[in-house]
Amino acid sequence: MKTLPLRLAPGADLRRALEAALAEHGAEAGFVLQGIGSLQPAVLRLAGAETTVAPEGSVELLTLAGSVAPGASHLHASVSDAAGRVLGGHLGYGAIVLTTAEVLLVLLPDWAFSREPDTATGYAELVVRRR
């Protein structure tokens, strides 16, 4: 296990940047332990929904956690707006860093993550393999 603290710059697509950081370090599996920052827009898929939502304006990224894999990440985020309302769900592509995102990424060099169809759930679920 190797920790990789990151500060992502304005304009970065949060999810794509995390997957790129994983690849840059030759890893195929990782976890976000925590992330904070600001986004505009935030792109979230809410529980049970098929499509994403993007709250208007800038939001604070309160929490970020989940698995990271090449093109197969599963990240949950909670964000708050200027009125303090909190919204959470699956982080989608297109969530853009506004001023900063500070993320602690853990690389798992001995493992590879992928997503494959699971007949029990009907979704593409995490598959863990030793490298």
UniProtKB/TrEMBL annotation:
CDD domains: DUF296. InterPro entries: PPC_dom. It comes from the Bacteria. Residues 1-129 form the PPC domain. PROSITE patterns: PPC (PS51742). PANTHER family: DNA-BINDING PROTEIN, PROTEIN, PUTATIVE-RELATED. This is PPC domain-containing protein. It comes from Rubrivivax gelatinosus (strain NBRC 100245 / IL144).
